[in-house]
TrEMBL record:
SUPFAM superfamilies: Helical backbone' metal receptor (SSF53807)
PROSITE patterns from the UniProt entry: FE_B12_PBP, PROKAR_LIPOPROTEIN
Protein species of origin: Planobispora rosea
Protein name, entry field: ABC transporter substrate-binding protein
Claim: Secreted is one of the keywords in the record: no
Record domain Fe/B12 periplasmic-binding: where: 60-341
Amino acid sequence: MSPRTRLGAAFVLALTVTGCAAPAETVPSSGPSSGGSPAQQVVTVTSCGQELSFQRPPSRAVTLEQSSTELLLALGLQDRMAGTSNLKTEIPPRYRAAYERIPVLNPKIITSEQLRAATPDLAVSPFASLFTKDRAGTREELHRAGLPTYVSAVDCPDLAENGLTPFDLLFQDYENLGRIFRAEERAAALIAEQRAAVEAAAASRKEATGRPSILWLYSMFNGVPYVAGDGGMPSAMSELLGAENAFDDVDELWPEVSWEEVARRDPDVIVIGDLSERGRPGDSAEEKIAMMRENPLAAELTAVRENRLIEVPGIEMDPSVRTVDTLRLVADGLRRLGRVR
C-alpha cells in the first residue's frame, strides 16, 4: 500500500474544494452513522477558499503553530489533539497542564512526513504559508490524501477586504472551530468574553485625549527597528483605543524602517514587544529600551525621553486568542500615561 493510500485510509473526513467563501452550515447527513447510532449532523465551513465538511468531530487534530495550539486549548479540545508544533514562546500557565498532555511533533516547523505520521484528521494553522511543499505540504495535496486543512480567517485576504477587523476574523475562527469540533458553547463563551474586552477598549476611545500616535516596535535586528505597518492587529487595536498606528501608511504588516523616519514621525507612545523567550540579540523589551536610549536619534524621541513606553508580549501583537490581553495592557498603559482620561 502506498504512503498516500495508507494516509487516506487513516483519515475519516471528507473535504470538497471550492473557490469562494461562504458561511458555516450544518445539514443532516444522508443516513445513520456507523454502529447504528442516530444520524450525525454534517458541519460545513469555508476556510480560505476551501470548503470543509465534517460528519463527526475530529479526534486527531494537529496544530502547525503556537497560536492555533492555544486556540484549541482555549476551546478545551486537548483530548482531540494528536500533536502540536512550532512553539515560539512559553505556553501561558492557564494552558500549560493541558498542553503537556499532547505530543510535540516538532518544536519548530513541522514537515510533511511528521504531519502524516501522526495520522491526523484535521490540520490547523494560522498561516497559509505553513502549507507548502517544503513544509507541511500544500493544502491541495493534503486534500487529495484526505486531510482537511484549516487556515485562520485572519490570513485570508478576501475576508479582510470585506471590511472585517482582525478581531472579527478571530471570532470567525472561534465559531468555525467550535462548529467543527461540536464545541459551540465553549466557542460562544470565548467570543462573548473577548468581545466584551474589545467593547471595553472601544469605550475608552471616547476618553482619549486627542488622537495619540503609537509606534508598535516588534523587533530590532542590528539596531534596525521592525514596526507595525498597515492592516495588522496593531492598527486594529490603535483604532479601538482612539489612537493611530504611526506607520499605518506603510502597506506591509511588519516593515523595516529607519530611526530617521521614526524621528520624523515622533510617536507619542511606543509599544514594545518583548520576545525574550525567542533568545535572539535585541529580542527582550529591556534590550530594545537600552538600544533606543543609546541610539542618538531614538534617544531624542519624545516617547523615549518622557518614558512613554508600554511593554507587551511580542507574540500577542499578532492575532491570537491572547491578543485581547495586550489590548488591555495598552489601554491601561495609555491611561497611566495620561493619554486616556
